[in-house]
Amino acid sequence: MIETDWSPYTFTMNWIFTRKDMPIRFEKGEPYCHLFPMGRDALEQVEPEIRAFETAPEMLRNHKKWSESRNDFNANLKTPGSSARDEKWQKDYYRGFQPDGDKGPPTHKTKLRLKPFYNVIRTGHDKDT
User: Fold this and answer.
1) Which of 2, 14, 21, 77, CA to CA, is 20 to 30 A from 42?
2) What is the pTM of this model?
3) Angstrom distances, CA of residue 59 to CA of 39, 99, 125
């Protein structure tokens, strides 16, 4: 995380390449990084835990149901004329449904409507002035 609201410094972005001696090329206009603005303390407020699936039986049931469904779907992708071939991907998460067909959380989002960066360089002044 880079605090850019006070820092006069540049920063580096590091890549990990997974194949030795493999040429890497970025086409003109192709994205090569992602800037993700967030509140300074947001990550430090997270309290991650590792738990066994068995401690959440409903989630375990839904995961098993999803896993079976995913295996069937992927197998059916090879069948010409199958509904899987027509759909191309399952979309349950995208549509906000649990594997058992129940609706997911009412706050489920698949797309954020973020404000664009205000271009001070182009306008010549801060947005607040």
Assistant:
1) 14
2) 0.58
3) 30, 10, 51
